[in-house]
Amino acid sequence: MIRVPPSVRKITTVLLASLAMLPGIAIEQELELDYRMNEQVVQVPAGVDHRAMLETTVFRPNGPGPFPLLVINHGKDPGRPSAQPRDRFYHMATAFVKRGYAVMVPMRQGFANSTGHYRDRGCDMKANGYLQAEDIRSTLEFARAQSWIDGVHIVVAGQSYGGLATMALGTQDEPGVRGLINFAGGLRDDSDRCAWRSALVSAFAEYGANSRVPSLWLYGENDSLFGPDLANRLHDAYGQAGGKARLIEFPSFKRDAHGMLASRDGEKIWLDDTMRFLKGVGMPTEVVNKVPPPPTPPRTDFAKLEDIEAVPFLSENGRRAYADYLTKMTPRAFAVSPSGAWTWAEEGEAPDARALATCSAKSSEPCKLYSIDDYIVWNGNRVEAAEKASMTASIAAPADASAPGAVGSTGARQPAAANTVPTAQ
Fold first, then answer.
1. Is the pLDDT of residue 219 over 90?
2. CA gap 10, 413 in Å, rounded
3. What is the DSSP letter of 414?
4. Could you tell me which residue, 10 or 280, shows the higher pLDDT?
5. Which among 417, 371, 376, 374 has a CA at the least distance from the CA of 263?
6. Is residue 56 predicted with pLDDT exceeding 80?
């Protein structure tokens, strides 16, 4: 996690330019809850006298359980924690639901729609980790009280700041927790007089000296926040103090390895080593459920991907945007509207759904996908409502209002990696 410079944890940003081409402002588009994995958002009591409520995403297989549990802990974006969107770690959650797990992703106090206040101890990395770990403990306490959770088969993972908090949690006796997974864990503070690297090394040494469970660490060669030298310092400090951890240093991943876990392609990096680790600590690893992929529109022969002039409805600014889209990484999607609005979405979760949602929210007429990844899906100038409905049919379903703590889609925002410009005509 980084405090002052622009974040790389959120791989891309959503920008909206007005008809007058005013400077962009950040926007977020909500994704529908995914009923294929029984996704819902619950409120988990936390903090003093349980007065705070943590906005927590839950995925689970069909049936009554009990299911083994994975808890995934998020990092921190720049700016106000309350402005940070709800994290889902959709790709990792999918892999675990396939293996029979329930998955919980709590937003800690002060983040997203969680109540309470974000707590920070500046450059005291030990204290920062311990403070954030308190909300993870509250999540585990809540989970163990649920009849559908197998309270003796639990693994806890965290990314960036969530990785630091996960390792701090490992110093506590937590019933049922068999292992920890640290994805690029750390906290970066570039403010004056903060020797954050040394502070992190000291924090991990203390966590290692008091650790209770084994851990798996994954850091990438081109991680812009915590590169190989620092990752090895953290691992050495943790191990030399008595902690049990295996460090996996994976090769460069796309533009920045720090965003690996959020990427559709990240599973190729983390899955095999994670399954070996889980098997070693007595957690399930076999696929027992099928999670069907969401449907996507078929390829068409409307035009070649690189034919910018073939894209309908675009002004000169829109054509420049499409040329920019062609440089983006997959997964990606480009949507257009007869109004002249356009959107591209890159990386992260469901770029096709995010592109449509963002474009439609800012357009006076319906939007339709023109391209997905490296092919064209446009089949003419008509925007067919039935086709657009089919795009969301597999993921959109109302939450069970009778489920304990369900709040429907009120917190279902997700950072859309998109750029939307209703262009001037």
1. yes
2. 14
3. E
4. 280
5. 417
6. yes
Task: For residue 311, give Cα distances in angstroms to 96, 305, 318, 326, 380.
Answer: 39, 9, 9, 12, 10
Left if phi > 0, otherwise alpha if psi is -120 to 50, otherwise beta: which for 167? alpha
* Spatial separation of the C-alpha atoms in residues 286 and 308, rounded to whole Å: 45
Three-state DSSP at 365 gives: coil
Beta strand 149-159 pairing with 177-183: parallel
155 touches 283 (CB < 8 A) = yes
In angstroms, the CA 420 to CA 6 distance is 20
Q: What are the tokens at 41?
A: 């958002």
Averaged pLDDT for residues 221-247: 97
Bridge pairing between strands 413-414 and 29-30: antiparallel
- DSSP string over 218-266: EEETT-SSS-HHHHHHHHHHHHHTT--EEEEEEPP-TT-GGGGGGSGGG
Asked whether residue 398 carries a pLDDT value surpassing 50, the answer given is no
pTM value?
0.80
Cα(2)–Cα(9) distance, integer angstroms? 9
Using CA atoms, how far apart are residues 181 and 215, in angstroms rounded to an integer? 6
Contact 120, 128 (CB under 8 A): yes
Residue with tokens 């992703």: 105
- Residue range 346-388, pLDDT digits in tens: 888 888 988 998 999 889 899 999 999 999 999 875 444 434 4
As given in the structure block, the two tokens for residue 386 are 């039935």
Predicted local confidence at residue 79, as pLDDT: 86
**Burial environment of residue 27 by CB neighbours within 10 A (0 to 12, 13 to 18, 19 or more):** middle
Name every residue whose Cβ is closer than 8 Å to that of residue 138 and which is 6 or more positions away in sequence: 44, 45, 46, 47, 50, 54, 106
The terminus-to-terminus CA distance of the chain in angstroms comes to 41
- The two tokens of residue 290 are 């099928």
Residue ranges of E strands in 48-191: 52-59, 67-73, 102-106, 149-159, 177-183
Q: Is the pLDDT of residue 26 over 50?
A: no
